[in-house]
């Protein structure tokens, strides 16, 4: 799985037609369009409801949107998207798509679990997808990600860089940082893997963990990161969505380092973001839409991991020694082979 600034540029170029339909209420989305000449494809309608982080979070919601755009352009299906402003938007936005006869309604994020559970019962003939949580219902497909695996890889890389002082400005305090959004499973599995990866190569390393308790406040993320930097953390893993963008800013201003999340976020600060723990939300979104369009979509849980290209680690920056990159690549193969099994809970 690979993400890049080029991919985001492609989405920006493709999205002009759809973004004109984005709004804060389902009625603002307008009539979905189709680029396909196939009336069958155009008749298949997909609606996507973001969480409150919005499409410009440079990660989670944006990746789901990329998968939606991919389906629009490769399959010719009709698509629409609406951005939630508060959690109270989840139920009415999901309901509106179902009432309009959309074939598949996608909910982006763990925080939408209760809303999907409620609306899927009210509209048993509508197919739903929820990303990052499970809803057990005959018309719901749940997509989960083994992010403890990619968390382990970026943790191992960070631990090696810190231990070997492999980059400029790495200090002598042997301390790393993590800023999470909320203490919920999709966040904590990343962090659990990170802890394990760091301590696999440096058991004595100290890790500072703080939660912003939100996902869309970069100023908050920056403040928490600055606090960790003041405690000598020189590499900080952000698992906080839009709030985590502030973590990257804090690291950049301090001439230190950050690790991105969900997408390859190196383009935000090329000399600061040394790698990213990637989650294949675009892959899951596109695959689910394609299965729905083909009539092969099944209810239940689909799990994405290193072995099926569902999670991964972005290429490290060139300043990181090849010996470290090779060691982490070897660990990736051991995880795939089942010889390393990263934990899902934080010690």
Please provide a written account of the structure:
By secondary structure, the protein is of the alpha/beta class. It has two domains: 5-145 and 281-308, 3-Layer(aba) Sandwich (Rossmann fold); 147-278 and 317-336, Response regulator (Rossmann fold), CATH 3.40.50.2300. 41% of the residues lie in helices and 19% in strands. It has twelve helices and twelve strands. It has helices spanning 5-14, 16-19, 39-43, 60-75, 90-99, 113-122, 147-164, 185-201, 218-230, 244-253, 281-294, 322-336; strands at 45-50, 78-83, 104-108, 127-131, 140-145, 175-180, 206-211, 235-239, 257-262, 273-279, 300-304, 311-313. The strands form two sheets. Strands 2-1-3-4-5-11 form a six-stranded parallel sheet, sandwiched between helices. It has a six-stranded mixed sheet with strand order 7-6-8-9-10-12, sandwiched between helices. The two termini are 28 Å apart. The model is unreliable at 2-37 (pLDDT under 50).
């Amino acid at each position: 799985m690979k993400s890049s600034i080029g991919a985001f540029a492609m989405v920006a170029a493709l999205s002009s037609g759809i973004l004109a339909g984005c709004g804060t209420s389902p009625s603002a989305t307008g009539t979905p369009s189709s680029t396909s000449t196939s009336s069958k494809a155009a008749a298949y309608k997909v609606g996507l409801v973001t969480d409150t982080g919005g499409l410009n979070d440079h990660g989670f919601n944006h990746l789901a949107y990329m998968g939606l755009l991919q389906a629009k352009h490769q399959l010719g299906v009709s698509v629409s998207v609406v951005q939630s402003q508060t959690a109270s938007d989840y139920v009415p936005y999901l309901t509106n798509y179902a009432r309009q006869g959309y074939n598949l309604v996608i909910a982006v994020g763990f925080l939408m679990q209760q809303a999907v559970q409620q609306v899927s019962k009210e509209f048993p003939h509508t197919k739903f997808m929820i990303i990052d949580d499970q809803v057990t219902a005959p018309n719901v497909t749940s997509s989960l990600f083994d992010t403890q695996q990619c968390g382990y890889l970026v943790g191992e890389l960070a631990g090696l860089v810190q231990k070997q002082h492999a980059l400029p400005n790495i200090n002598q305090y042997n301390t790393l940082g993590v800023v999470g959004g909320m203490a919920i499973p999709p966040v904590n599995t990343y962090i659990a893997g990170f802890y394990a990866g760091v301590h696999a190569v440096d058991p004595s390393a100290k890790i500072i963990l703080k939660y912003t308790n939100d996902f869309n406040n970069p100023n908050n993320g920056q403040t928490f990161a600055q606090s960790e930097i003041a405690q000598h953390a020189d590499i900080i893993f952000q698992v906080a969505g839009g709030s985590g963008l502030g973590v990257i800013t804090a690291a950049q201003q301090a001439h230190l380092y950050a690790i991105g999340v969900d997408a390859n976020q190196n383009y935000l600060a090329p000399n600061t973001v040394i790698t990213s723990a990637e989650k294949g939300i675009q892959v899951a979104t596109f695959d689910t839409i394609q299965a729905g369009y083909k009539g092969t979509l099944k209810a239940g849980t689909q799990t994405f991991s290193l072995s099926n290209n569902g999670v991964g680690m972005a290429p490290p920056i060139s300043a990181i020694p090849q010996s470290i990159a090779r060691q982490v690549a070897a660990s990736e193969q051991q995880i795939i082979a089942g010889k390393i099994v990263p934990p899902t809970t934080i010690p």
